[in-house]
Specification:
By secondary structure, this protein is α/β, with parallel strands linked by helices. It is built from 14 helices and 8 strands.
């Protein structure tokens, strides 16, 4: 006895398979629905999160528990030590590899997370963006942020105006590209986006996918964020951060951008007390969620999926499974669709 394998075999050879993408702001409930969906359609989850790739960043990134990972296979979790770097290009390579492996087992890949850049890179590619230069990156990381901003404003005013100037990682990457190529980052970005459009069209011709971004009313999402942050501190975020500092957390500028950890490090350095730190993490997380909502609203590949206040993750997952099945049936000729999206079939 066991769940249906939910395998769909295509007669139309243009399609190499199907996949589902679930995105949205932090604390909206993506992971819970993805877990239920994976059981319903016999899927495996690929994490689309720039911080969950690091071993040890568990509580602060709301990483799936060992029990959840036992029930459903997860990919791109705990693949790097804190001393290693990670970027969108590496994500795309590893994610596509995971998709192929999951399909080879007759299962459905479910990409789930909130890192919008990774979703965009997966769907559209990275165009001709140059690879990171470790020596130049180290040099830029040693320069104070105000000086980096001055250089960016002087060399590419458009990028300076559009970029989050509180995010050193993005400032450094823009300057790295400018220094490597000798051209404004904004001018090259337009060329990459043109190439991305062609790559996205190629992906759509080969894969039938459903892409959803979850949304909750502002006040409800705010409450969920506050509750999550409170729970993280109760579970031991401070102690976890202390242990990570011994393993090199402060040396990894990417990992130090993770919400919660940077603020706790500042608390441990004496910049603010614990109560103030908890409140600051809640504020920063709400601000980050607002930016995520704004970003996903602008992505044409993703469909808006409002979550009712009294929602049940099993019901939501079944709704997505049914919708995706209907798309499969209407888009291509299929064989053996019976049993897709059901639980408990032999």
């Amino acid at each position: 006895m066991g769940a249906s394998t939910a395998q769909v075999r295509y007669q139309d050879n243009r399609h190499s398979g199907d996949l589902i993408m679930i995105a949205g702001p932090t604390a909206v409930g993506k992971s819970e629905v993805a877990l239920s969906l994976a059981r319903i359609i016999n899927g495996e989850i690929i994490s689309v999160d720039s911080m969950q790739v690091y071993r040890g960043l568990d509580i602060g990134t709301a990483k799936p528990s060992a029990e959840e990972r036992r029930r459903v296979s997860h990919h791109l979790l705990d693949i790097l030590d804190l001393t290693e770097s990670f970027d969108a290009a590496q994500f795309v390579t590893r994610a596509h590899q995971a998709v192929q492996e999951i399909r080879a087992r007759g299962r459905v890949p479910i990409l789930c997370g909130g890192t919008g850049l990774y979703f965009r890179a997966f769907l559209g590619g990275l165009g001709e963006t140059p690879a990171s230069d470790p020596v130049m990156r180290q040099e830029l990381e040693s320069i104070p942020l105000p000086l980096l901003l001055q250089e960016l404003a002087a060399r590419d005013l458009e990028t300076y105006r559009r970029t989050d100037r509180q995010n050193p990682r993005r400032i450094i990457r823009a300057l790295e590209v400018i220094r490597l190529t000798g051209r404004p980052f904004s001018a090259q970005r337009a060329l990459w986006q043109t190439a991305d459009s062609r790559s996205s069209a190629d992906l759509k011709s080969q894969t039938l996918f459903s892409a959803w971004w979850f949304y909750r009313p502002v006040e409800e999402l705010r409450r969920r964020i506050d509750d999550r942050v409170t729970e993280m501190f109760q579970r031991g975020l401070v102690a976890e951060t202390e242990g990570l500092l011994l393993k090199g957390l402060s040396e990894n500028r990417t990992a130090m951008q993770a919400l919660g950890y940077r603020q706790v490090v500042e608390h441990l350095q004496g910049h603010r007390n614990l109560q103030e730190t908890v409140q600051l993490v809640k504020t920063r997380t709400r601000q980050f969620a607002k930016k995520q909502v704004t970003w996903f609203r602008r992505q044409p590949e993703f469909e808006f999926f409002p979550i009712p206040a009294s929602s049940n993750c099993e019901v939501l997952a079944q709704s997505i499974a049914d919708n995706h099945k209907a798309r499969l049936v209407s888009a291509i000729s299929v064989q053996a669709v019976e049993g897709y999206g059901t639980l408990g079939r032999v």
